[in-house]
Each structure stands twice: as structure tokens, then as C-alpha cells.
TrEMBL record, chain B:
Name of the protein in question: Hydrogenase subunit family protein
Pfam families reported for this sequence: NADHdh
Coiled-coil parts of chain: none
Cellular compartment(s): Membrane
Organism: Phascolarctobacterium faecium
Entries under InterPro entries matching the protein: ComplexI_Subunit1, NADH_UbQ_OxRdtase_su1/FPO
UniProt keyword annotations, A-Z: Membrane, Transmembrane, Transmembrane helix
CC terms in the record's Gene Ontology section: plasma membrane
Annotated membrane topology: Multi-pass membrane protein
Signal peptide coordinates: none
Length: 662, 294, 209
């Protein structure tokens, strides 16, 4: 258990590399990366070992004012942090080198500080420590988003993030104070024992959910996420999407399991619906974006939506007659968190590799990269399959569990209400998962397949060994978590089961991972893999056995020679969906004639399409306008004279005195 | 273990049976359609001849394609075969390696690769097909899941075997009739049949599934066509097993469903692409009604 | 003690009438010295040990010596600047102080009838309000500092009268606070003088957006 302290110390040392002299920038970078890899590896080992056979708590103690305690619920997220941290840190070895001369020392230091702050959040055992670590995490990630502050977009995104995240922190703080004032202590162990009135509990639930949903990027508080995640350097985006979002789930889970007392039905239903709506809209916007990292960021909104949807489903199940089945919803949330962290890290890393190779984020300018970067292409394919939740990848396991939890929900009582809630969950989930498949087909197809859409691609090159190693490890993990999910799920289950002993374990629910003989639900990935690969091998041998049968000819294009610009573009690919969902997306199209001339030929037409985020347009912009408008009233009392302000103070004081004397 | 191997054998038998009869069922659909349209039509074995013909022809690849283009048909084929193996065993043995969600997932795997391959050809046609395929699948997915939910609620299980209707009892209720109609609509959409897609045309403005295959030839084309026919058969079997509330032998029910497809194709036109939204939404609403009515 | 109260009252009234910066600072110093004296007397009356001398000593060091010294140095840099306000304005501030005196006695009687240190409490409220008046009515930065410290002395006196000696930590905090405030204000005044050639705070209005 002392290993965690070593992790913290190593991260601390890594953070200190920011203080290296300027001449030793490269040395600082290597030291920082080594510290991050070593620290994360130790964390991974420690949390995995504890989850597998440990009992009691991973560690508990205190240092100065900071109290630690890590139970199984923390350990799951420590595992996620360790896993994603190790993989992305290896990747950072090669990737961050491109920041040489651009505050590389700071980047390395902040990278370690970011990991450190996330671990501290997970370890914190009282409100003060938690909020302190939470703030540290917010500030460090803000600095990382703002790393390329020269770019206007990054700068704006960073400040938007800073404002939004503090609103979230404020909400969480209010929730803590409401509960803490009743419990009479700020210690996590005591916090849940206060007797709370229903109003306080409801209010605390709403504020806590708002705060954590903001961090997790759920609707309609997601607006910062698609701006902030792409603005950061890619390995940082990987960590932000892969781990930081999950920490929101960690905090929310603490509230639900420990602090808020018995769950109300409407809490769960609210979380479920908000989560799944986020999933659908996140996937829909991901389908519309052209910026490779914004696509991934919106996909994170989608996946966090699914995670929270499953979690909400568990919460609803807790209040139904079949509350002993509630485990499955929470389990789905946790399993999908783990898988998503690996998959999203992988895809952000490959997005980084692609951007590194082409100097562009715009997928419309790419194409045919698969031939130039074969390794990256294979790894990205695995990641895309995972995020499309195809069987035999990690992504499928979580979504399969989520679907099972929705079925359980729909069947959990005779009443129509829960049944319709389950049906709604099915519809939204189905939309989201099919949209995700489309999104990743589009992403992968446009970037890696086909022909070069611009000259940027011609210079593309394969990534260096460390980047490939990082991505490769993540890709192997995606497959491994998909093919042998049994042990992983069993281990993660102990973390959730810890929360309530009444819950049935997974085996009781007759889920069998290897030879399927269960009567309720079955998924036997190993067998599936065997059958699938046998068939695949057989048909491949039959079809491609005879090489002489293959000819090379130019693609048929109605008799003309095809050019690269005639390929389907990413925007074109999403056109049917844009049209089908135009009531949600409200795309703005403008066509202007640049050159008037003969109406039938020789015209130059400029066609512009923009799909502004409707939440920014319809919700945030009006709020901003209203605030500016109301501020104009406040201007009147602000005349710029110090003496006037003092006289306000004086009048106020006199009034208070007189009022007090009355 | 021996028991499992025995079950595995029966599963193999089932897959082989489905694989071999898939072109026949496709031929029957065509023949019935032709008869309904007062034509003589081609032989019901024509699909076998076609597959043989394509098998003899060389495969032509364009210079832009990557390995994905070659792998895609194979994965598609494998995924449909696996889906066929997952159907509840006709021969009465218990063997499965995944429930209905895995079944859907496996079919999605095939679709994922086919749409990828459509983008690999670097032309407008491929992308168009892929884009429309994704569009249809996004609309169809919630409806499929609802259809699954109806049966899962009825039977308390999500395995296909558990969800299958009891052959002995005629199972007729409002819910089952509504589900039956809705799933039939879904079957047409999923397999690229009129009114959603037209499998017989190669007009680029109307086609979806054929659009994606435009660049394929030779053995790869044969593999894709065979897989598509198998997929249609798998859906027909699924429809008969899970949703057709008649107490008849399975083979009869499948033939009945196939005939229904022919009748539908004769009576209806292909609808506009953006009307599919309404069509599938209607199927979804029928299923919601079924869930309430159950 | 009563004698001290009368002296302090007199000093405060004088403070409202002085227009020369140097004299105002000396007056302030005297005012702080009287406070320090009051502090010693109150300390001896109520307690024993080093704790009772510490606040008085600190007052002498900070408010009687350090702060006036810093301000005097600043004034010497400002070539014979005066508070440029009319005689009427001065009369207004004196009158305001008189009104405050009546008001504060009323308030104290109403809120704490028959309290022991009635005069001291009333006086401290007068000092706070007068300090605020000084800040509001005078435009020179130095005079505003004088107002601030008058107010500060009032608060200190109030605290002393109410609680018979605050914990040492809080007193230290208050002194540090005053010291920092004066430091900031001195720097600000210097900047003001350099930028605008005057210490008239009215020019700060230009900063308004």
C-alpha cells in the first residue's frame, strides 16, 4: 500500500521537472515522461492488485490537512487513471517532442501535476481535501488547455473551460455544504450519516448532479468540452477525455452511494434521460464535425451519456421491486468507463499522430493515410471498432451490459411507467449507438481510406516508436478487454457490490462468459472469436487463395477518369443524417454567387455550411445577452469615483446601525 | 465437453443448411415476384448459377484501395454466417454464444466493414451508398431494439432461444400482431428491399446497398451476394421464429414470409430516401403500442 | 478614562477641520497615541502579563511612528500641496461629526442600555463614521489615508471596549492589515503623482470603462 505514496512522490518529482534550466529542456522532458510512466505503472499495479485480492481499504491516512482513504470505488478509478496514464505517457515520449521550444518543460511538469491531481481527487477522504484536489485538477487542466495560448481558439476555449468548471465546482461545493451542515462533519465517512430532510436531499442531488454533469460534459452543460478537449495537446486531450471525465462519475457515485441517503425514483429517471439524451446529441454532433479532435470530443459526450444513462438506470432499479438487480446498471457504467478511457485515449493518440503527420485537424483535407501510416491506421481501426461498440472489442461489453440493465429496468415492474422508461432508454440508446457507428466509419474512412484530398497528406509519415508503442498497447487493451471481459467484469463488480451487500452478483444473474448456457442473457466472446475467425479464415482462403485472379484497374466513374476531389467528402457523408435531424441541428446554409455570368455555366458559387451547437445558440448566448443587459443597470451606480463608493459603504453602515437600534 | 461438441455439430449443420438454401430462397422470392407480375421469370436456381459465374471471374481492384477493401466482404460474410449460427437451433439442441444484442452487434460488425469499404474506393458512388446505409441503420437501430424489447419482456430473456415463440401454441394478441407487422417493415429496411431500397436496380440515384458494391467483382462480389442472401434468410427465419404468431412448421413459415416480401415488392414503389424516416418511425410507434398493450 | 475620551473627541473634531496635509498627519499621530494610552489603561484595568502591553506597543510602533513617518515622507515629496476644499465643506464635515455624535449616543443607548463603557462605544462609532466622512469628502489621497486610519482606530477602540482585549493573533492581523493598506496607498499615491502630477483622486474617474 506504500506504493501509492511512491506514485505520488514520483508524480511530484515529475512536476518539478518544470523547474529545470532552459538548456536542459530535452532532459526535463525525458525525466517528466519517465516519472509519469513509472508513477502510472505503479498506480496501475497497486490498484489492480488491491482490486483482485485486497480487502479493507487500499490506504488510509493523512498528511498535513489532507486525509486519504481509498476504497474499492476509488480503486476502480485509480485503475483507470493508471491504465490511461501509462499508455498516454509512453506516447508522450515521442509526441511531446514536437513542443520543443514551446514551453516543453512546463508541459512535462503540468502533465505530471495533472496525473497527481486526479489521483489526489480519488484519494481524498474529506470535503476540504476533495475540493482542494478538484480545484487543482481544474486549474492544471486549464493550464494544459491553454498551453498553446498563442492560438486564439485555444485561449478562448481555455477561459471558457475555466469559467464553466468553476461553476461546476461551486455547485459541488454547495451540495457538500448542504449535506455537511446536517451531518456536522466534513469527513466522508461521517457525511452520509446525517439525517437529511427530503428537501435538502433533493437540492443536494440537483446541485451535485449539475456539478458533476458539467465536468462529465452532459447536456446542456457540455458546451466547453468540444472546445477545450481539442485545444489541448493530443496526449492531454486523451487524458482529459479518458480519465478526467470519469472522475466526475467517481464523485457522483460517492454522492449517490454514500452521501445522499436512499435514492429517489425521479433522481434515477432524471440521470437516465439526461445521460441518454446527451448520448444521442453528442453522437449526432460528432457525426457533423470536420475537426478530428472535435469529433472525438463529441464522441466523449456521447459515451459519458451512455455511462450516466446506465448509472441512472441502476439508480432507478434501486427504487423498484427488483432492487437487488440494481448492480447491473452501475456495473455497466463502471465497465464502460474503463473501456471508454482506453478507447478514447487510443483515438486521441492516433488523432495526435495524424495531426503530427499532416499538420491539420480538418478531416476534409485527409484521405488515404492508411497507406502512409499503416501502424497508426490499424490501431485507429481497432479504436474505431471499439467506440462503435462492435463485438469482440471493449466497447461492446459496456454497451451490452447497459442494454441488459435497460431490459431489467423495463421488466422490473408490472406498471407501464417503467416499461415506457425502458423503451425510451432503448430508443435513445439505439440511436446513439448507431450514430456512433456512422461517426467512426466516417472518421476512419475519410482519414485513412480512399485517396489524398490535399497535398498535406503527401508529406505524412509514420509515427515514431514510442507513439506506436503507446497506441499499440492501447489497441491491444481494447481487444483484450473485449475478448476476455469476464475476469475484468468480475473484478470491477466487487467495487460496485461493495456499496450494497444486498445486490446480486453477476453470476447470480446467469451471465456466462465462456460456454453460453444461461437462459437469461449470454455473451461468450471467446467462442464468438473462435467461430468468427474460423469462418473468416475459411472464406479468406477460398477467395483470395488464387492470386492470379486479381487485376488492377481504375475505378469506374461513368466513363471519366476519377479525381480525388470526386470522392465523397466527410460533409457529404453525413448529409442524409443532417437532413433527417435538421429539426435538432438547424444547419445554416448560405450560397453566394461570386461571379455573375451566364446563368447556365461559368458561375462561381460559394457554398457555406455551419452547424452551430444549438445549446450555445439557444441557451448560452441569450444568458450572456441578459447578463450584459442587466449589467448596464449596474453601470449607473458605478461612476468611477472612489469617494462615491466609500459613501455607499458609509450609507450602508449607517442604515445597518440604525436598523439594528430600531 | 463432449456434449458441447455434439451441439457444435448441430450448429454447423444449421449453418450449412442456411448457407446452401439462402440462394434458393432468394430465387423463390424473385420467381414469385415475376409470377405476380405476369412474367415467367428466371429459374429459382438462378442465384446459384450467378454465384458460380462470379466465382469464375477475376477480381478487379482499383489502385486506390487498401487492404480494407479486400477484408470487408470477408468480414461481412463471416459476420452473417456467425449470425446464422446464433439463431435458435432448429434441431432442438442448446448452444449459443451470444444473446440478441450480440446478434445485432455481429451484424453491425459486417455493416461497419462494408461501409468502410465503400469509402475505400475513392469515388462518389461508394461514399453515397455508405452514407445512405448509415442513415438507414441509424433509423432502424432503435426500432430493432424496441422489437427485441417486446419479446424480451414477454419471455423474460434476451437469448434468441428464450425469445422464440412456442411453436405448439398459437400465440395471437394485439401486441404480437403489432410486433409482427413492425418487424416485417424492419426486415424490408434491413435487407435493402422495396420500399426502402431496390435490390434490382443499378441506378445510382436510387440504390443504397448496390451502390456500395459497385466496385466489387469476381469472387469478392460472389461472397458479398451470398452473404446478403444469407442475411435475408436469417432475418426471415428470425421473423418466423420470433414474431410470426402462427403455429406452422418453420420451413412453411419462412416460405410464407418470403412470399410476403415478394407481394410487398410487387405492390409498393421505392420511397424517397428521406421518407424512410417516417416509415421506420411508424414501425417504432407500432412497437411502442405493442409494449404498452402487452 | 473619561478624560481620554474628551481628548479623543476633540482630536477627532480637529481632524475634520485641518486642511494642511502635514498638520493632519501629526494630528493623526496624536490621535493614535491617545488610543495607545487608552489601550494601556484598559489593559492594566482588566488583565496582567505581557499580553496587555502588546497591543499598546504595537499601536505606538505602527500607528504613531511608522505610518505617520511614511506619510510625512510622502508629503515632503509633494511640493506644498493642500487639501483644496472650501470652508463650507469643512464646516459640513464638522457638522456631520456632531450629528454622528448624537446619533451614536442614541444608537448605543438603544442597543445596549446601561452598558459600562457607553462613552467609549459612542466615541468609537463617531470615529468610524468620521473616518468615512473624511474619505468621502476629501479628494487628496493623503487625506483619504488619514480617514482610513481614523476609521481603523475607531474599529480598534470599539473592539477593545466591547471585548476587553482581542486575542493577540487578531490584533496582529489588524495591524498588519493597516500596515499593508498604508503601504499600498503610499505606492498608489506615488504612482498617482507621477502619472497625473497630482494626488487628487478625482482623476481616477478617467479609469472607468
Amino acid at each position: 500500500m506504500e506504493l501509492i505514496y511512491i506514485t505520488l512522490a514520483v508524480y511530484g518529482m515529475g512536476a518539478a521537472t518544470a523547474l529545470f534550466p532552459k538548456k536542459m529542456e530535452m532532459a526535463a522532458h525525458y525525466c517528466a515522461v519517465l516519472a509519469a510512466v513509472f508513477g502510472s505503472g505503479a498506480l496501475l499495479y497497486q490498484s489492480a492488485a488491491y482490486l483482485m485480492q485486497g480487502s479493507g481499504s487500499l490506504l488510509s491516512g493523512s498528511w498535513a490537512f489532507f486525509t486519504f482513504n481509498a476504497d474499492r470505488w476509488s480503486a476502480v478509478f485509480l485503475l483507470i487513471t493508471g491504465l490511461a496514464g501509462t499508455v498516454t505517457s509512453i506516447y508522450a515520449w515521442g509526441y511531446a517532442k514536437s513542443y520543443l521550444g514551446k514551453r516543453l518543460r512546463l508541459l512535462g511538469g503540468l502533465w505530471n501535476a495533472f496525473l497527481l491531481s486526479m489521483v489526489l481527487v480519488l484519494l481524498a477522504a474529506d470535503v476540504f481535501s476533495f475540493l482542494l484536489a478538484w480545484e487543482l485538477m481544474a486549474v492544471v487542466s486549464f493550464l494544459l488547455v491553454n498551453h498553446e495560448a498563442e492560438k486564439k481558439a485555444a485561449h478562448n476555449a481555455a477561459y471558457q473551460y475555466l469559467v464553466m468548471t468553476h461553476i461546476g465546482t461551486a455547485a459541488i461545493m454547495i451540495a457538500f455544504l448542504m449535506i455537511g451542515s446536517q451531518a456536522g462533519s466534513l469527513d466522508f465517512a461521517v457525511l452520509g450519516q446525517g439525517v437529511l430532510s427530503d428537501n435538502v436531499r433533493n437540492a443536494a442531488f440537483i446541485t451535485a448532479f449539475a456539478g458533476f454533469a458539467l465536468k462529465a460534459g452532459l447536456l446542456p452543460l457540455h458546451v466547453w468540452l468540444p472546445n477545450a478537449h481539442p485545444a489541448a495537446p493530443s496526449h492531454v486531450s486523451a487524458l482529459m477525455s479518458g480519465v478526467m471525465l470519469k472522475i466526475a462519475l467517481y464523485g457522483f457515485g460517492r454522492f449517490v452511494f454514500q452521501f445522499l441517503g436512499p435514492t429517489e425514483f425521479w433522481w434515477g429517471a432524471f440521470v437516465l434521460v439526461v445521460g441518454l439524451l446527451s448520448a444521442v446529441l453528442g453522437a449526432l454532433y460528432a457525426q457533423m464535425e470536420k475537426d478530428i479532435k472535435r469529433i472525438l470530443a463529441y464522441s466523449s459526450v456521447e459515451n459519458m451519456g451512455i455511462i450516466f444513462g446506465a448509472f441512472g438506470c441502476g439508480m432507478v432499479l434501486m427504487t423498484t421491486p427488483r432492487h437487488d438487480y440494481a448492480l447491473i446498471g452501475f456495473l455497466a457504467a463502471v465497465v464502460h468507463s474503463l473501456n471508454h478511457s482506453v478507447m478514447k485515449s487510443l483515438l486521441f493518440m492516433s488523432a495526435g499522430a495524424v495531426m503530427h503527420a499532416t499538420d491539420s485537424k480538418d478531416i476534409e483535407k485527409m484521405g488515404g493515410l492508411g497507406k502512409l501510416m499503416p501502424w497508426t491506421a490499424v490501431f485507429t481501426l481497432v479504436g474505431s471498432m471499439g467506440l462503435s461498440a462492435l463485438p469482440l472489442t471493449g466497447g461492446f461489453v459496456g454497451e451490452w451490459l447497459a442494454l441488459q440493465s435497460f431490459v431489467t429496468l423495463a421488466g422490473s415492474s408490472e406498471g407501464q411507467g417503467l416499461r415506457l422508461l425502458g423503451a425510451l432508454a432503448f430508443v435513445l440508446f439505439g440511436l446513439a449507438s448507431a450514430l456512433a457507428v456512422g461517426c467512426f466509419v466516417r472518421l476512419y474512412g475519410v482519414v485513412f481510406l480512399g485517396r489524398n484530398r490535399s497535398r498535406l497528406v503527401e508529406r505524412a509519415h509514420e509515427s515514431d516508436w514510442s507513439m506506436r508503442l503507446g497506441m499499440g498497447l492501447a489497441a491491444i487493451l481494447v481487444l483484450l478487454l473485449g475478448i476476455v471481459p469476464g475476469p475484468v467484469v468480475a473484478v470491477l463488480q466487487t467495487a460496485v457490490q461493495n456499496q450494497q451487500t444486498l445486490w446480486r452478483s453477476f453470476a447470480d444473474m446467469q451471465k456466462v462468459w465462456w460456454f453460453g448456457s444461461g437462459s437469461y442473457a449470454v455473451y461468450a466472446p471467446l467462442l464468438l472469436l473462435t467461430v468468427l475467425s474460423v469462418v473468416l479464415l475459411a472464406v479468406a482462403l477460398m477467395t483470395c487463395g488464387d492470386k492470379s485472379f486479381v487485376h488492377r484497374e481504375v475505378t469506374w466513374n461513368c466513363g471519366t477518369y476519377p479525381t480525388a476531389r470526386q470522392q465523397y467528402s466527410a460533409t457529404g457523408f453525413s448529409k442524409p443524417l443532417r437532413r433527417a435531424f435538421d429539426f435538432l441541428l438547424k444547419p445554416k446554409r448560405t450560397a453566394t454567387y461570386l461571379k455573375k455570368g451566364n446563368p447556365y455555366f461559368g458561375r462561381q458559387l460559394e457554398y457555406k455550411l455551419s452547424i452551430p451547437d444549438q445549446f450555445t445558440e439557444k441557451l448560452y448566448v441569450p444568458i450572456q445577452h441578459y447578463m450584459v443587459w442587466s449589467a448596464s443597470f449596474l453601470r449607473r451606480i458605478q461612476q468611477g469615483s472612489v469617494r462615491l463608493y466609500i459613501s455607499y459603504v458609509m450609507v450602508a453602515m449607517l442604515l445597518v446601525l440604525i436598523w439594528g437600534a430600531m | 465437453m463432449a456434449m458441447h461438441i455434439y451441439d457444435l455439430g448441430w450448429m454447423l449443420a444449421q449453418v450449412l443448411l442456411l448457407l446452401c438454401s439462402a440462394p434458393l430462397v432468394a430465387g423463390i422470392i424473385k420467381k414469385v415476384k415475376a409470377l405476380l407480375q405476369n412474367r415467367i421469370g428466371s429459374s429459382i436456381f438462378q442465384e446459384y448459377f450467378d454465384l458460380y459465374k462470379w466465382w469464375q471471374k477475376p477480381t478487379i481492384l482499383t489502385p486506390y484501395t487498401s487492404l480494407v477493401f479486400i477484408i470487408a466482404p470477408l468480414v461481412y460474410f463471416a459476420s452473417v454466417v456467425v449470425a446464422a449460427a446464433m439463431l435458435p437451433n432448429f434441431f432442438g439442441t442448446q448452444f449459443s454464444f451470444g444473446d440478441v444484442f450480440v446478434f445485432i452487434g455481429v451484424l453491425t460488425l459486417g455493416r461497419f466493414f462494408m461501409t468502410l469499404s465503400s469509402l475505400d474506393t475513392a469515388t462518389a458512388f461508394g461514399g453515397m451508398g455508405g452514407s445512405r446505409e448509415i442513415y438507414i441503420s441509424v433509423l432502424a437501430e432503435p426500432v430493432i431494439l424496441l422489437a427485441v424489447l417486446v419479446n424480451a419482456l414477454r419471455s423474460g430473456s434476451t437469448t434468441l432461444a428464450g425469445m422464440a415463440l412456442d411453436f405448439q401454441a398459437v400465440y395471437l394478441s394485439v401486441a404480437s400482431v403489432l410486433t409482427c407487422i413492425a418487424f416485417f417493415c424492419l426486415l424490408l429496411a434491413e435487407n435493402g428491399r422495396i420500399p426502402v431500397d431496390n435490390p434490382d436496380t443499378h441506378l445510382e440515384l436510387t440504390m443504397i446497398h448496390e451502390c456500395m458494391l459497385l466496385e466489387y467483382s469476381g469472387r469478392l462480389l460472389a461472397v458479398i451476394h451470398w452473404a446478403s442472401m444469407l442475411k435475408t434468410l436469417v432475418f426471415l427465419v428470425l421473423f418466423s421464429l420470433l414474431y410470426l404468431p402462427l403455429s406452422l412448421p418453420l420451413a412453411v413459415k419462412v416460405l410464407l414470409a418470403a412470399t410476403a416480401v415478394s407481394v410487398m415488392e410487387t405492390l409498393k414503389n421505392k420511397m424517397r430516401l428521406f421518407k424512410v424516416r417516417v416509415y421506420l418511425a411508424a414501425a417504432g410507434i407500432l412497437l411502442l403500442l405493442a409494449i404498452v398493450a402487452q | 478614562m473619561n478624560f481620554l475620551v474628551i481628548v479623543l473627541l476633540f482630536v477627532v473634531f480637529l481632524q475634520t477641520r485641518i486642511m494642511d496635509l502635514r498638520q493632519a498627519i501629526i494630528c493623526l499621530s496624536v490621535q493614535s497615541a491617545v488610543i495607545a494610552l487608552a489601550c494601556f489603561i484598559s489593559g492594566i484595568a482588566h488583565g496582567e502579563g505581557i499580553h496587555i502591553y502588546a497591543p499598546g506597543l504595537l499601536t505606538i510602533i505602527v500607528k504613531v511612528l511608522l505610518v505617520p513617518y511614511a506619510m510625512l515622507r510622502l508629503v515632503s515629496k509633494l511640493a506644498d500641496e493642500r487639501e483644496l476644499i472650501s470652508e463650507i465643506n469643512v464646516n459640513y464635515s464638522t457638522a456631520a461629526s456632531a450629528v454622528f455624535l448624537v446619533l451614536s449616543y442614541l444608537i448605543v443607548d438603544k442597543m445596549l442600555p446601561g452598558v459600562e463603557g457607553r462613552d467609549i462605544l459612542a466615541l468609537s462609532i463617531v470615529m468610524i463614521l468620521t473616518g468615512l466622512t473624511l474619505i468621502v469628502m476629501r479628494s487628496r489621497a493623503i487625506m483619504q489615508m488619514v480617514g482610513l486610519i481614523t476609521m481603523e482606530n475607531g474599529i480598534y477602540l470599539l473592539g477593545m471596549a466591547m471585548t476587553e482585549g482581542l486575542p493577540l493573533v487578531i490584533e496582529m492581523g489588524i495591524f498588519l492589515d493597516v500596515l499593508i493598506a498604508v503601504m499600498v496607498l503610499v505606492i498608489l499615491t506615488n504612482r498617482l503623482r507621477l502619472s497625473f502630477m497630482t494626488t487628487d483622486t478625482n482623476v481616477l474617474r478617467k479609469l472607468k470603462g
